[in-house]
Amino acid sequence: MIDHAHDLASVRDATERLLTALGKLDNASVTQSSRLPGWSRGHVLAHLARNADALVNVLEGRPMYVSGEARDADIERDAPRPLAAQLADVRESAARFQDASALPADWSRTVELRNGITDSASRMPFRRWAEVELHHVDLGIGYELEDLPAAFTERETDFLAARFAGHPEVPPTRLTDGTRVWRTGREADTPEVTVTGPPADLLGWLAGRREGSALAVEGGPLPVPPPL
């Protein structure tokens, strides 16, 4: 059962870690490249702020974004801002998300995200938690996949393995960190491929943050996860 109140507290903690780390940067650092192709750190921070507002829209029954083009334009508009403006926007948009999530609501209701994707309202705090944690790593400022909370790493691996389950381009795959086991890819009685590795590397591969060189593969080549 999803505990959205617990996840909201985790979002708050993750956001504070991010803001503390950002406070050590300067304006020049914000303009430098992030680990995401084509995006500066300013692009990542602008995306994080606008994502918080987009999830407020979802919780309040509005479209997540006016359009894909408008989403991209907002990020491009906000990316060049100086550090102080970026910090204020990330902090204030995060507070708006927390305030919207604290209102009494039917957390079992279905909400709509981008591209017709639907989910339970109760999962919105976890989706925000994932945005904050993974994009903190994407900034390339000293926070790595190995630094993620263990509970988050396990849950995000659960989420991504389930997301790619049944995907026609992913072979039937068994994932394991030596203790836990996940199944993903096309349906089959037995997996074609087994992928083994540390939790951070499994998550990094599934989330498109690592190429998987630290993973051991049996039964075929390492599958290529679909883009998120």
Automatic annotation (TrEMBL):
NCBIfam families: maleylpyruvate isomerase family mycothiol-dependent enzyme
Record keywords: Isomerase
Residue intervals of the MDMPI C-terminal domain: 147-224
SUPFAM superfamilies: DinB/YfiT-like putative metalloenzymes, SCP-like
UniProt xrefs under InterPro entries: DinB/YfiT-like, Maleyloyr_isom, MDMPI_C-term_domain, MDMPI_metal-binding, SCP2_sterol-bd_dom_sf
Transmembrane residue ranges: none
Keyword Isomerase recorded: yes
The protein, known as: Maleylpyruvate isomerase family mycothiol-dependent enzyme
Residue ranges occupied by any Mycothiol-dependent maleylpyruvate isomerase metal-binding domain in the UniProt entry: 11-139
Organism: Streptomyces violaceorubidus
Lineage top rank: taxon: Bacteria
Keyword Chaperone: no
Molecular function, one GO term: isomerase activity
